[in-house]
Design goal:
With 258 residues, this protein is mainly alpha-helical. It is built from eight helices and no strands. It has helices spanning 58-83, 90-110, 121-145, 151-170, 174-182, 185-206, 209-232, 242-257. α2 runs antiparallel to α3, α4 (151-170) packs antiparallel against α6 (185-206) and α7 (209-232) packs antiparallel against α8. The chain starts with 57 loop residues before the first helix and ends with a helix.
Length: 258
């Protein structure tokens, strides 16, 4: 039984894992597992295969929710541009649209086989993480437009995001692409924490529904991004939350605009 393509000529599920039912084993007394790593960065096995009494939720959290989250983000980006256009400044609305679309591309890249994408694992990794960097950059850009983060912090994040681009364009291995992805992580988390603090102060001062939604958006996004960074860097194990967390955060943001 094979899960994914060990040659990496076609994309694999990044956040899922194989599940083998006991009925498929039959009378076999010896099971041999062979793992192929896409890159040195991801060459780690946080836990060995184990028997469980109930069917695990691996497919739900690693595939199904990502499919729904990616499609939901694409629909939400179209809704934001068509319905909410004119309710905020043009720069802000374009920034929100690009950020949602970028994160949707990132989610699709994590579940390439579900969409039958005819790309190699390397190229899909390149495109997906580039979408993540662009999407997250425009979130910080929107924060800067709303004066929620200092201009100096925005410029530092812009420099780190631009510095990561050569790794996506010229990278020939998954390790170099992933290194480019991690470059803006620090300034991204600082920006979200800063914006969350500013929005919490505004929420207590104004006590409006819009301010509450914006504060909730920043808190959800910060928690989801921080949790998934720890998972992808191997600092912790468990399911990633970006599939539904990003969609929920942007939905809250769109409601605050509306």
């Amino acid at each position: 039984i094979q899960f994914g393509d060990p040659t990496m000529r076609s994309p694999n599920y990044v956040v899922s894992a194989p599940v083998l039912e006991c009925s498929a084993i039959g009378e076999v007394s010896l099971l041999r597992w062979r793992t192929t790593a896409y890159s040195r960065y991801f060459a780690r096995v946080p836990f060995l295969p184990q028997f469980v009494a109930a069917k695990p939720l691996t497919k739900l959290f690693g595939e199904t929710l990502y499919i729904g989250g990616a499609i939901g983000l694409l629909i939400l980006s179209i809704f934001a541009m068509s319905i909410l256009w004119g309710k905020e400044s043009r720069k802000l609305m374009i920034g929100i649209f690009i950020s949602i679309a970028g994160m949707a591309i990132y989610e699709v890249s994590l579940i390439g086989p579900a969409f039958e994408i005819p790309l190699s694992m390397l190229n899909l990794h390149r495109i997906g993480d580039l979408g993540c960097i662009i999407g997250s950059f425009f979130i910080v850009y929107c924060f800067a437009l709303e004066s929620l983060v200092p201009r100096s912090l925005y410029r530092i994040h812009a420099i780190s995001a631009i510095s990561s681009l050569p790794f996506f364009i010229l990278g020939t291995r998954g390790d170099s692409i992933q290194f480019g992805t991690t470059l803006p992580f620090t300034t991204l988390l600082i920006s979200f924490a800063w914006a969350a603090y500013r929005l919490s102060v505004e929420m207590r001062r104004r006590r409006s529904l819009g301010a509450t939604f914006k504060c909730l958006y920043s808190l959800i996004f910060f928690f989801v991004v921080a949790k998934d960074i720890f998972v992808f860097t191997g600092s912790t194990s468990g399911h990633t939350l970006v599939s539904v967390g990003i969609l929920l955060a942007f939905l809250v943001l769109v409601l605050s605009v509306n």
